[in-house]
Amino acid sequence: MPWPSETNNDTAIFDLLEAERTRQVTGLQLIASENFASPDVMAATGSVLTNKYSEGYPGKRYYGGNAVVDDIEALAIERVKKLFGADHANVQPHSGASANMAVYLGLLKPGDTVLGLSLDHGGHLTHGSPVNASGILYKFHSFKVGATDERLNFDEIRELAIEHKPKLIVAGTTSYPRRLEPEPFKKIADEVGAMMMFDIAHISGLVAGGAHPNPVPFADVVTFTTHKTLRGPRGGCILCRKELATVIDKAVFPGSQGGPLEHAIAAKAVAFHEALQPSFKEYAHQIVKNAAALAAALASHGFRLVSGGTDTHMMVVDLQPFDAELTGKEAQLVLDTAGITLNRNSIPNDPRSPFVTSGVRIGTPSVTTQGMREAEMPLIAEYIVTVLRNRNDAAKVAEVRAKVAQLCAKFPVYANLKAR
Ligand SMILES: Cc1ncc(COP(=O)(O)O)c(C=O)c1O
Predict the structure, then answer these.
(1) Helix or strand or coil: residue 34?
(2) Mutation test residue for ligand 1: of 119, 126, 203, the one with most atoms within 8 Å of CB
(3) pLDDT at 3
């Protein structure tokens, strides 16, 4: 029997996909955790592997017909181990959150003590937020960034580690704009006899491209997402020391997941291959250069950059010195209407709620994929400023919307891509 879509021409979703493609390519995508995956990554994601069940691991599956799938997953594993210099890799986690939860399941018992960065100071939900399973099942203690320099303070982290004796220390951030050196975390973990997990969800592409230190030689376990700076499909991955391989694999399957998403795993393999190319190094370094240029341009317009700047792909911008009345929520909304997409973000010790915030987070992975360089960054800053200064003037906002579309047209992505 034919599929209904072949006979009744149900175009509703495909019209919406085309509308979303248009939104993505005609606007500035400045969400720090997003990127434009390559057509090859997307082809693998939309491939026949969508149809396949393959519970288990290469050579040890619970279903038949997995010879090809085994080769694909083995290739993904081989490539990612090479990319990061890891002993062992599990490429099955459906997402970054799933990767983190699997690591906790494998390394901890419910109620065990863990140390991680507080969510409102740049950590992630899965690093012990009370509304997340990590915070519900495990006893997390949080460290914060320093009151004046807004950077991690390793003396404080060490004191907390000595006081609470965690079984695991979680390094890694979701909205922290500075380099995260692995050595100080490792030193503290060794001193208190803790294991160390490094969550490089945001910076995995920078690490792969040599634009950020690689924590693999230092951490017991490294988790990451494949869809942010790494520019792959939506998904997660775990790297670990070989002694932990069995524990980690069991925690992913059967511990916390069922059938792996082999279409996503094939797309991860494509992304790892792309990241192994010399051009990816250039890409990763350009992301950082663009972020620095955009941060400098925004600072020159009167914004305050949390921690004073950025060493990575992102910046957290305190809106208060620019306009004390302006909230992150309002900025996000009005910039969206001008085709500039970013997200509101708490600043450290934000007087406003996480739904409102006094800041925004801005990242350069997507515009760098489009081919924008330092020269375009002051222009982006100027568009942001014009929209925020004229946020009650619809005509002015529309003017910027048109300029944004013109700029994006000079840096086309997915020009020949059709939803189907
Ligand atoms: C540091 C960190 N860990 C984990 C995650 C979770 O990734 P996912 O959204 O794929 O579950 C994120 C997502 O932003 C993150 O920033």
Answers:
(1) coil
(2) 126
(3) 79
DSSP notation for 189-240: HHHHT-EEEEE-TTTHHHHHTTSS---TTT-SEEEEESSSTT---S-EEEEE
43-275 CATH choice from 3.40.640.10, 1.10.10.10, 3.40.50.2300, 3.40.1400.10: 3.40.640.10
Note whether 43-275 and 279-409 share their fold.
no
CA dist., res. 261 & res. 103, Å (int): 19
392 Cα: distance to centroid of ligand 1 (angstroms) = 34
**Which active-site residues does the annotation give?**
53, 55, 199, 225, 228, 234
pTM metric for this prediction: 0.97
Burial of 26 (0-12, 13-18, 19+ CB in 10 A): middle
* CA torsion angle 89 90 94 100 (round to 10): -80
- What are the backbone angles phi and psi of residue 149, rounded to the nearest 5°? -90, -10
186 CA distance to ligand 1 centroid (A)?
A: 22
Domain boundaries, given as residue ranges, for the chain:
43-275, 279-409
What tens digit of pLDDT does each residue of 40-92 get? 999 999 999 999 999 999 999 999 999 999 999 999 999 999 999 999 999 99
Q: What confidence tens digit (pLDDT) does each residue in 374-385 have? A: 999 999 999 999
Q: Ligand 1 centroid vs 134 CA: distance in angstroms?
A: 13
Q: Is 234 exposed, middle or buried (0-12, 13-18, 19+ CB in 10 A)?
A: middle
Q: Which CATH class is domain 279-409?
A: alpha beta
